Amino acid sequence: MTAPIAKLSFWGVRGSTPTVDPATWRYGGNTPCLELTAPDGTQFILDCGTGLRMLGSRWRTPNGGGNPETHIFVTHYHWDHIQGIPFFAPLYAENNEFHFYSFRSKFLGRDSLKQVFEAQMALPYFPVDMSAMNAKRKFKEVEGGDTFTIRENKITARWLNHPQGCLGFRIETPAGTVVYATDNEPGDPKLDESLRELAAGADILINDAQFTPEQLKTTRKGWGHSSWQESVRLAREVGAKTLVLFHHDPDSTDRMVDSILRQAREEFDSVFAASEGMVITVGATGDNVQAHMPGPRTSLRREAQFRAKVTGVTEGGKEFQEETVVRDISLQGALISLQNMPQLQSELQVTMQTPGEDGLQSSMRLKGYVVRIDAGAEKGQIAVGVVFTD
Ligand SMILES: [Zn+2]
Ligand SMILES: [Zn+2]
């Protein structure tokens, strides 16, 4: 029997508002939306930020179409968690069926999420009428403390410390446990304790890391968010295996998120910064994190033969240096084959030999950020995808 596997995909990782600033494209600008496919084929969607549109455009019915079941958890009603709903194409197809879960807001009363749908699609905010949404929709109210099962998966919801309320979700699948705790601020002893119970022993803990520890103490105190430092503290205290820093600030450039990740890695072994397109396989043996480069950005590709020297840090934290040939290059990045396995989301120095004038060799130095690792493509060689950064 093969071990059960769950697949966690990140479709939107940005907090507060979408960004299209080129300085934020590497981690991505869409607001929160995650997809978890459990070993039994059940599909979970966590939040309906603008990332939901992309999920919809790549839509495949879950479980091979045999017994499609999609359960959508909405943590709260701030714009960045609901804005993708009207743009989720599968909602307009009558063969689809969705189960929505969210809490009863004291500002909206009964059927809070249903009201959000209606308000978002009311004239003059949106041109298409609700009646065009042909998919079957079922709404279920949940609140902090609730526990229920969906097929072979156990779900737990807990309140988090956030203005107007927010729910954190724990999904226990036979492949492992994923805890989604976005939009929460530490400092309320009761809710801090509740979050620790929710996150206890998680295989993957996704936590809010919007602000720097300094901001959290000063200018952003009370805004309802956390930091990498608090996330690391939480992950340590609950014995989480892998931590994913989430809900990046719209003002955080890729370089700033890089620096946040670097600091977190100094204090916790397995930590990633959520990035759009990243896929985590839960329950697989060996390397359990893979990330994909966003497709449309790799359009301008050329085959090449550049001799290159590469220095970096291995997964085990050892520095390495080796010579190789770059065979595939685009203006954004390259696919490099290496014998060493660098750490995902780490930086490599790539020095390529280029034929200079008069046949003299010259070199081109580039900083590459590892976005993809493909072991086993070629014997003894690891294909490493990098994006060039300045
Ligand atoms: Zn948010
Ligand atoms: Zn919020």
Written overview of the protein:
With 390 residues, the protein is α+β, with helices and mostly antiparallel strands. The protein contains seven helices and 21 strands. The strands form three sheets. Strands 6-5-4-3-2-1-14-15 form an eight-stranded mixed β-sheet. 42% of the residues are buried. Bound molecules: zinc ion (ZN) (2 copies). Residues 15-16, 78, 80-81, 183, 247 line the site of one zinc ion.
Spans where pLDDT lies below 50 across 5 or more residues: none
How many DSSP-defined strands?
21
Distance between the termini: 47 Å
Order of helices and strands: EEEHEHEHEEEEEHEHHEHEEEEEEEEE
What fraction of residues sit in β-strands? 35-45%
- What about the largest sheet? 8 strands, mixed
- Our Rg estimate from Cα atoms comes to 22 Å
Molecular shape: globular
Brief description of this entry?
The protein has helices at 51-57, 79-82, 112-120, 189-199, 213-217, 228-238, 254-267; strands at 6-12, 33-37, 43-46, 70-73, 97-102, 136-141, 147-150, 153-160, 166-173, 176-181, 204-208, 242-246, 271-273, 278-282, 289-291, 301-313, 319-330, 333-338, 347-355, 361-378, 381-389. With 390 residues, the protein is an alpha+beta fold. The longest helix has 14 residues, at 254-267.
